[in-house]
Design goal:
Elements (H helix, E strand, L loop, with lengths): L11 E3 L4 E6 L9 E8 L2 E6 L1 E4 L2 E6 L1 H4 L5 E11 L2 E13 L14 H13 L5 H4 L2 E2 L2 E2 L5 H18 L17
Parallel strand pairs: 1-8
Antiparallel strand pairs: 2-6, 3-4, 3-7, 5-6, 7-8, 9-10
Length: about 180
């Protein structure tokens, strides 16, 4: 039994997987209108075109072979209906194409950029930074060129960003409590 085809764009999928969805619209029949997508990320563009699934339903399919060639990242997308040189906007959004772990070398690093910079700053402060960490830039300067004050300021900034990222909600604060006996 085949899985049911979703009737909305996926919010994410893995590069190398098949992605398919259908879009129903009785005003722009699949038998007479095309439905296209343009997905963009810095330096990348992906264009998709639907096929008719039913008279009033467009089907979009990205084969596993095709998606394996895509670059992982967050893409902004727009979709639009077309017919003989005319174009009507349908919608827009974001789609995350995830890294296919099965094709990654053993050196794959799943940490976010924020986490990498935070850990590099921490390691430099502790005198345990690796060669790769010493090459990291904050703004337009390598971390080894930062003054001690700048180093601590950037470390605090990235600590706060990292804590937000992992759901702690920012830098932890000290809560003072006083217990009394009655």
């Amino acid at each position: 039994m085949a899985a049911e085809i979703p009737d909305i764009e996926p919010s994410s999928f893995f590069c190398g997987d098949t992605a398919t969805w259908k879009i129903y619209n009785s005003d722009y029949l699949a038998s007479t209108y095309g439905l296209s997508y343009a997905m963009v990320m810095t330096g990348k563009i992906i264009t998709l075109t639907s096929t008719a699934y039913e008279t009033d339903t467009h089907l979009i399919t990205i084969s596993s072979t095709t998606s394996a060639t895509y670059t992982a990242g967050t893409y902004d997308w727009i979709s639009y209906f077309t017919k003989t040189g005319e174009r009507w906007n349908r919608g827009s959004g974001q789609m995350v194409l995830k890294t296919n772990y099965a094709t990654q070398s053993s050196g794959y690093d799943a940490r976010s950029t924020v986490q990498k910079i935070f850990e590099a700053l921490e390691a430099l402060i502790l005198g345990k930074a690796t060669k790769d960490q010493l090459k990291i830039k904050v703004g337009d300067r390598e971390i080894t060129k930062l003054s001690p004050k700048q180093l601590m300021d950037w470390r605090n900034f990235y600590a706060n960003e990292y804590y937000k990222e992992i759901g702690i909600g920012g830098r932890p604060t000290l809560v003072k409590m006083k217990f009394t006996q009655e």
